[in-house]
């Protein structure tokens, strides 16, 4: 997993922006359905698997994805909270790790 040395801020309705370069690199497309899951307090966004039981959302025209409210509630995330951004090239996934109020993830 690689850190992109970036943080992302949660917007209205749990929206988070995906970096354009990596969206293209991983083969995601606007309007595509993606899978969103929690793994060890990390939010993973990956290509949709038809047999998944995880949450799914669409990538918007502005390359945003809405983090489901149940995930935000489990991780105590609100609008304005910051997340550290990583990419996992082997799985073609984005990984967001919440940053606590002290600045650590």
List the main descriptive attributes of the protein structure presented here.
about 100 residues; mainly beta; Chemotaxis protein chec; two-stranded antiparallel ribbon; 2 helices; 8 strands; about 10% helix
Which homologous superfamily in CATH is the superfamily? Transcriptional regulator MraZ domain
Count of runs of 4 or more consecutive helical residues: 2
Broad CATH class: Alpha Beta
CA gyration radius, whole angstroms: 13 Å
Helicity range of the residues? Answer: 10-25%
Number of domains: 1
Domain SpoVT-AbrB: 8-51, 57-104
Protein name: AbrB/MazE/SpoVT family DNA-binding domain-containing protein
GO molecular function: DNA binding
Organism: Virgibacillus byunsanensis
């Amino acid at each position: 997993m690689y850190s992109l040395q970036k943080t992302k801020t949660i917007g209205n309705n749990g929206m988070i922006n995906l970096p354009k370069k990596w969206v293209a690199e991983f083969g995601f497309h606007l309007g595509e359905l993606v899978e969103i899951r929690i793994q060890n307090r990390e939010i993973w966004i990956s290509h949709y698997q038809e047999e998944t039981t995880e949450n799914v959302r669409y990538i918007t025209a502005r390359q945003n994805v809405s983090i489901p409210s149940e995930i935000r509630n489990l991780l105590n995330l609100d609008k304005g909270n910051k997340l550290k951004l990583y990419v996992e090239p082997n799985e073609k996934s984005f990984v967001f790790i919440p940053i606590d109020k002290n600045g650590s993830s």
